[in-house]
Amino acid sequence: SVMENLRKLNEDTVNEEQLGTALVAELDVAAKLVEESAARIAALLQDARERMTGTELAVHEAILDSCTNLMDFIKQLIITSNKLQKEIVESGRGAGSAEDFYCRNSRFRWTDGLLSASKAVGLRAQTLTDLADLCVKGQGNFDELIVASREITASTAQLMAASRVKATRGENLTKLEVLSKQVNKAAGQVVGASQSGKTSTEKSSTENVDFSKLSYTQAKRVEMDTQVKILDLEYQLERERAKIREIRKSAYNEANAANPVATQINAAPQKAQENNLRELASVLNSAPSPPSLIDLDLSSPKPVAAPRKSLI
Protein backbone atom coordinates (compact mmCIF):
# COMPACT_ATOMS: atom_id res chain seq x y z
CA SER A 1 0.00 0.00 0.00
CA VAL A 2 1.00 3.65 -0.31
CA MET A 3 1.28 4.18 3.45
CA GLU A 4 3.36 1.04 3.91
CA ASN A 5 5.74 2.10 1.14
CA LEU A 6 6.05 5.57 2.66
CA ARG A 7 6.82 4.04 6.04
CA LYS A 8 9.61 1.97 4.49
CA LEU A 9 11.07 5.00 2.72
CA ASN A 10 11.07 6.98 5.96
CA GLU A 11 13.11 4.35 7.80
CA ASP A 12 16.60 5.88 7.88
CA THR A 13 18.50 3.39 10.08
CA VAL A 14 20.50 0.91 8.01
CA ASN A 15 23.33 -1.31 9.26
CA GLU A 16 26.47 -1.41 7.14
CA GLU A 17 26.08 -5.16 6.80
CA GLN A 18 22.68 -4.61 5.16
CA LEU A 19 23.59 -1.81 2.73
CA GLY A 20 23.23 -3.89 -0.41
CA THR A 21 19.88 -5.34 0.61
CA ALA A 22 18.67 -1.93 1.77
CA LEU A 23 19.60 -0.25 -1.52
CA VAL A 24 17.79 -2.83 -3.63
CA ALA A 25 14.79 -2.58 -1.30
CA GLU A 26 14.76 1.23 -1.51
CA LEU A 27 14.79 1.16 -5.31
CA ASP A 28 12.01 -1.45 -5.34
CA VAL A 29 9.89 0.56 -2.89
CA ALA A 30 10.45 3.77 -4.85
CA ALA A 31 9.38 2.02 -8.07
CA LYS A 32 6.22 0.67 -6.40
CA LEU A 33 5.44 4.09 -4.97
CA VAL A 34 5.78 5.70 -8.39
CA GLU A 35 3.58 2.98 -9.89
CA GLU A 36 0.90 3.58 -7.25
CA SER A 37 1.18 7.32 -7.86
CA ALA A 38 0.61 6.78 -11.57
CA ALA A 39 -2.51 4.73 -10.79
CA ARG A 40 -3.81 7.49 -8.54
CA ILE A 41 -3.24 10.10 -11.23
CA ALA A 42 -5.15 7.96 -13.75
CA ALA A 43 -8.06 7.79 -11.29
CA LEU A 44 -7.89 11.56 -10.77
CA LEU A 45 -8.01 12.10 -14.52
CA GLN A 46 -11.09 9.89 -14.85
CA ASP A 47 -12.76 11.76 -11.99
CA ALA A 48 -11.96 15.12 -13.60
CA ARG A 49 -13.50 14.02 -16.91
CA GLU A 50 -16.69 13.02 -15.12
CA ARG A 51 -17.05 16.21 -13.06
CA MET A 52 -15.54 18.99 -15.15
CA THR A 53 -16.16 20.66 -18.50
CA GLY A 54 -14.74 23.42 -20.62
CA THR A 55 -11.64 25.33 -19.55
CA GLU A 56 -11.53 23.71 -16.13
CA LEU A 57 -11.37 20.23 -17.66
CA ALA A 58 -8.79 21.28 -20.25
CA VAL A 59 -6.54 22.70 -17.54
CA HIS A 60 -6.64 19.62 -15.30
CA GLU A 61 -6.39 17.19 -18.22
CA ALA A 62 -3.19 18.86 -19.37
CA ILE A 63 -1.69 18.76 -15.88
CA LEU A 64 -2.66 15.16 -15.11
CA ASP A 65 -1.59 13.91 -18.55
CA SER A 66 1.83 15.50 -18.06
CA CYS A 67 2.05 13.99 -14.55
CA THR A 68 1.24 10.54 -15.97
CA ASN A 69 4.00 10.93 -18.55
CA LEU A 70 6.45 12.03 -15.85
CA MET A 71 5.65 9.07 -13.59
CA ASP A 72 6.22 6.65 -16.45
CA PHE A 73 9.71 8.02 -17.12
CA ILE A 74 10.58 8.08 -13.40
CA LYS A 75 9.61 4.43 -13.05
CA GLN A 76 11.77 3.49 -16.04
CA LEU A 77 14.64 5.51 -14.57
CA ILE A 78 14.43 3.66 -11.24
CA ILE A 79 14.27 0.25 -12.93
CA THR A 80 17.27 1.07 -15.12
CA SER A 81 19.19 2.42 -12.13
CA ASN A 82 18.55 -0.86 -10.32
CA LYS A 83 19.88 -2.84 -13.28
CA LEU A 84 22.95 -0.60 -13.45
CA GLN A 85 23.68 -1.12 -9.74
CA LYS A 86 23.58 -4.89 -10.16
CA GLU A 87 25.93 -4.54 -13.12
CA ILE A 88 28.34 -2.39 -11.06
CA VAL A 89 28.33 -4.89 -8.19
CA GLU A 90 28.96 -7.86 -10.47
CA SER A 91 31.94 -6.17 -12.10
CA GLY A 92 33.45 -4.76 -8.90
CA ARG A 93 32.86 -7.20 -6.09
CA GLY A 94 35.50 -9.72 -7.18
CA ALA A 95 35.35 -12.83 -5.03
CA GLY A 96 33.38 -11.05 -2.31
CA SER A 97 29.65 -10.73 -1.89
CA ALA A 98 27.45 -7.82 -2.90
CA GLU A 99 27.22 -6.80 0.77
CA ASP A 100 31.03 -6.67 1.00
CA PHE A 101 31.15 -4.44 -2.08
CA TYR A 102 28.67 -1.92 -0.65
CA CYS A 103 30.36 -1.94 2.76
CA ARG A 104 33.74 -1.18 1.16
CA ASN A 105 32.26 1.79 -0.67
CA SER A 106 30.07 3.13 2.14
CA ARG A 107 33.01 5.03 3.62
CA PHE A 108 33.11 7.19 0.48
CA ARG A 109 29.41 8.08 0.89
CA TRP A 110 28.60 6.63 -2.54
CA THR A 111 26.15 4.12 -1.07
CA ASP A 112 24.64 6.80 1.19
CA GLY A 113 24.08 8.97 -1.88
CA LEU A 114 22.25 6.17 -3.65
CA LEU A 115 20.05 5.45 -0.64
CA SER A 116 19.07 9.08 -0.10
CA ALA A 117 18.45 9.62 -3.83
CA SER A 118 16.22 6.53 -4.01
CA LYS A 119 14.16 7.74 -1.06
CA ALA A 120 13.89 11.27 -2.45
CA VAL A 121 12.56 10.12 -5.83
CA GLY A 122 9.78 8.03 -4.31
CA LEU A 123 8.76 10.61 -1.71
CA ARG A 124 8.70 13.51 -4.15
CA ALA A 125 6.67 11.53 -6.67
CA GLN A 126 4.16 10.89 -3.88
CA THR A 127 4.14 14.60 -2.96
CA LEU A 128 3.45 15.60 -6.57
CA THR A 129 0.52 13.17 -6.69
CA ASP A 130 -0.92 14.52 -3.44
CA LEU A 131 -0.70 18.09 -4.76
CA ALA A 132 -2.33 17.10 -8.07
CA ASP A 133 -5.14 15.49 -6.07
CA LEU A 134 -5.68 18.74 -4.15
CA CYS A 135 -5.68 20.77 -7.36
CA VAL A 136 -8.39 18.61 -8.93
CA LYS A 137 -10.46 19.05 -5.76
CA GLY A 138 -10.04 22.82 -5.92
CA GLN A 139 -7.99 22.87 -2.72
CA GLY A 140 -4.53 22.96 -4.24
CA ASN A 141 -2.19 25.47 -5.74
CA PHE A 142 -0.56 25.54 -9.17
CA ASP A 143 2.64 27.01 -7.72
CA GLU A 144 3.00 23.99 -5.43
CA LEU A 145 2.85 21.70 -8.46
CA ILE A 146 5.56 23.75 -10.14
CA VAL A 147 7.84 23.53 -7.11
CA ALA A 148 7.16 19.80 -6.68
CA SER A 149 8.03 19.15 -10.34
CA ARG A 150 11.33 20.96 -9.95
CA GLU A 151 12.06 18.98 -6.79
CA ILE A 152 11.52 15.77 -8.75
CA THR A 153 14.00 16.97 -11.37
CA ALA A 154 16.56 17.60 -8.62
CA SER A 155 16.03 14.20 -6.97
CA THR A 156 16.27 12.26 -10.24
CA ALA A 157 19.43 14.20 -11.10
CA GLN A 158 20.84 13.11 -7.73
CA LEU A 159 19.92 9.48 -8.46
CA MET A 160 21.47 9.76 -11.90
CA ALA A 161 24.71 11.23 -10.53
CA ALA A 162 25.00 8.63 -7.77
CA SER A 163 24.25 5.76 -10.15
CA ARG A 164 26.94 6.67 -12.66
CA VAL A 165 29.80 7.18 -10.14
CA LYS A 166 31.18 3.66 -10.50
CA ALA A 167 29.49 2.72 -13.76
CA THR A 168 31.33 1.94 -16.97
CA ARG A 169 30.01 2.95 -20.36
CA GLY A 170 27.40 0.44 -21.46
CA GLU A 171 23.78 -0.09 -22.47
CA ASN A 172 22.28 0.54 -19.02
CA LEU A 173 24.28 3.73 -18.39
CA THR A 174 23.37 5.09 -21.84
CA LYS A 175 19.70 4.29 -21.26
CA LEU A 176 19.86 5.93 -17.81
CA GLU A 177 21.24 9.14 -19.31
CA VAL A 178 18.49 9.20 -21.94
CA LEU A 179 15.80 8.60 -19.32
CA SER A 180 17.22 11.36 -17.12
CA LYS A 181 16.78 13.84 -19.98
CA GLN A 182 13.26 12.54 -20.60
CA VAL A 183 12.39 13.01 -16.91
CA ASN A 184 13.64 16.60 -17.09
CA LYS A 185 11.57 17.24 -20.21
CA ALA A 186 8.45 15.64 -18.69
CA ALA A 187 8.87 17.66 -15.49
CA GLY A 188 9.13 20.77 -17.64
CA GLN A 189 5.83 19.84 -19.26
CA VAL A 190 4.19 19.60 -15.81
CA VAL A 191 5.58 23.05 -15.01
CA GLY A 192 4.31 24.41 -18.32
CA ALA A 193 0.85 22.90 -17.87
CA SER A 194 0.66 24.28 -14.33
CA GLN A 195 1.71 27.75 -15.43
CA SER A 196 -0.79 27.64 -18.28
CA GLY A 197 -3.50 26.49 -15.88
CA LYS A 198 -2.70 29.32 -13.52
CA THR A 199 -2.97 31.82 -16.37
CA SER A 200 -6.25 30.33 -17.61
CA THR A 201 -7.99 30.25 -14.24
CA GLU A 202 -6.79 33.52 -12.78
CA LYS A 203 -7.42 36.91 -14.34
CA SER A 204 -4.40 39.05 -14.91
CA SER A 205 -4.23 41.66 -12.18
CA THR A 206 -3.58 44.43 -14.69
CA GLU A 207 -6.93 43.73 -16.39
CA ASN A 208 -8.73 45.13 -13.35
CA VAL A 209 -7.32 48.63 -13.82
CA ASP A 210 -7.68 50.92 -16.83
CA PHE A 211 -4.52 52.94 -16.47
CA SER A 212 -5.59 55.36 -19.18
CA LYS A 213 -8.25 56.73 -16.82
CA LEU A 214 -5.85 57.47 -13.98
CA SER A 215 -4.65 60.97 -13.23
CA TYR A 216 -0.94 61.61 -12.91
CA THR A 217 -1.18 61.51 -9.09
CA GLN A 218 -3.23 58.29 -9.10
CA ALA A 219 -0.85 56.60 -11.53
CA LYS A 220 2.18 57.51 -9.42
CA ARG A 221 0.44 56.19 -6.31
CA VAL A 222 -0.29 52.85 -7.99
CA GLU A 223 3.29 52.68 -9.27
CA MET A 224 4.74 53.39 -5.82
CA ASP A 225 2.48 50.81 -4.15
CA THR A 226 3.49 48.22 -6.73
CA GLN A 227 7.20 48.93 -6.22
CA VAL A 228 6.79 48.52 -2.46
CA LYS A 229 5.07 45.15 -2.99
CA ILE A 230 7.84 44.02 -5.35
CA LEU A 231 10.54 44.91 -2.81
CA ASP A 232 8.64 43.09 -0.06
CA LEU A 233 8.22 39.96 -2.19
CA GLU A 234 11.89 40.01 -3.23
CA TYR A 235 12.87 40.20 0.44
CA GLN A 236 10.57 37.30 1.36
CA LEU A 237 11.84 35.27 -1.59
CA GLU A 238 15.47 35.80 -0.57
CA ARG A 239 14.64 34.71 2.98
CA GLU A 240 13.07 31.49 1.67
CA ARG A 241 16.07 30.84 -0.57
CA ALA A 242 18.41 31.35 2.39
CA LYS A 243 16.30 28.86 4.35
CA ILE A 244 16.64 26.30 1.54
CA ARG A 245 20.43 26.80 1.48
CA GLU A 246 20.60 26.21 5.24
CA ILE A 247 18.41 23.10 5.00
CA ARG A 248 20.58 21.60 2.25
CA LYS A 249 23.77 22.54 4.06
CA SER A 250 22.51 20.95 7.26
CA ALA A 251 21.33 17.79 5.52
CA TYR A 252 24.83 17.13 4.16
CA ASN A 253 26.76 18.28 7.22
CA GLU A 254 28.70 15.46 8.85
CA ALA A 255 27.91 16.98 12.24
CA ASN A 256 24.19 17.14 11.55
CA ALA A 257 23.40 15.13 14.67
CA ALA A 258 23.71 18.35 16.68
CA ASN A 259 21.73 20.36 14.13
CA PRO A 260 17.98 20.53 14.92
CA VAL A 261 17.02 21.36 11.32
CA ALA A 262 18.86 18.36 9.90
CA THR A 263 17.51 16.15 12.68
CA GLN A 264 13.93 17.12 11.77
CA ILE A 265 14.58 16.39 8.09
CA ASN A 266 16.06 12.97 8.82
CA ALA A 267 13.25 12.13 11.25
CA ALA A 268 10.43 13.05 8.85
CA PRO A 269 11.74 13.80 5.33
CA GLN A 270 8.29 13.81 3.72
CA LYS A 271 6.88 16.28 6.25
CA ALA A 272 9.92 18.55 5.88
CA GLN A 273 9.53 18.49 2.11
CA GLU A 274 5.80 19.26 2.27
CA ASN A 275 6.42 22.18 4.66
CA ASN A 276 9.08 23.50 2.31
CA LEU A 277 6.68 23.37 -0.64
CA ARG A 278 3.96 25.16 1.32
CA GLU A 279 6.31 27.93 2.41
CA LEU A 280 7.61 28.47 -1.12
CA ALA A 281 4.08 28.55 -2.51
CA SER A 282 2.95 30.99 0.18
CA VAL A 283 5.66 33.42 -0.90
CA LEU A 284 4.51 33.20 -4.51
CA ASN A 285 0.90 33.79 -3.45
CA SER A 286 1.48 36.53 -0.89
CA ALA A 287 1.41 39.39 -3.38
CA PRO A 288 -1.72 41.52 -2.88
CA SER A 289 -3.61 42.44 -6.00
CA PRO A 290 -3.00 45.95 -7.35
CA PRO A 291 -5.77 48.41 -6.40
CA SER A 292 -8.85 48.12 -8.55
CA LEU A 293 -10.86 50.99 -9.97
CA ILE A 294 -13.24 50.65 -7.02
CA ASP A 295 -10.44 51.69 -4.67
CA LEU A 296 -9.57 54.77 -6.67
CA ASP A 297 -11.50 58.01 -7.03
CA LEU A 298 -11.92 58.35 -10.78
CA SER A 299 -14.94 60.66 -10.74
CA SER A 300 -12.93 63.67 -11.85
CA PRO A 301 -9.55 62.80 -13.31
CA LYS A 302 -7.10 65.59 -12.76
CA PRO A 303 -5.16 66.92 -15.73
CA VAL A 304 -1.44 66.38 -15.70
CA ALA A 305 0.31 69.62 -14.82
CA ALA A 306 2.74 70.89 -17.42
CA PRO A 307 6.34 71.02 -16.25
CA ARG A 308 7.61 74.47 -15.30
CA LYS A 309 9.96 76.16 -17.71
CA SER A 310 13.43 76.88 -16.49
CA LEU A 311 14.30 80.55 -16.01
CA ILE A 312 17.89 79.89 -17.04
TrEMBL record:
Annotated stretches, region: Disordered: 291-312
A GO molecular-function descriptor: clathrin adaptor activity
Stretches with biased composition (Low complexity): 292-303
Keyword hit for Lyase: no
Biological process annotations from GO: actin filament organization; clathrin coat assembly; endocytosis
All residue ranges annotated as the I/LWEQ domain in the record: 11-255
InterPro entries reported in the protein's UniProt record: I/LWEQ_dom_sf (IPR035964), ILWEQ_dom (IPR002558), Sla2_fam (IPR030224)
Main subcellular location of this protein, as a coarse class: cytoplasm
Record protein name field: I/LWEQ domain-containing protein
Localisation per UniProt entry: Cytoplasm
One Pfam family cited in the UniProt record for this chain: I_LWEQ
Species this protein is from: Oikopleura dioica (Tunicate)
One of the record's GO cellular component terms: cortical actin cytoskeleton
SUPFAM superfamilies assigned to the protein according to its UniProt record, in alphabetical order: I/LWEQ domain
Keywords, in A-Z order: Cytoplasm
Top-level taxon in the UniProt lineage: Eukaryota
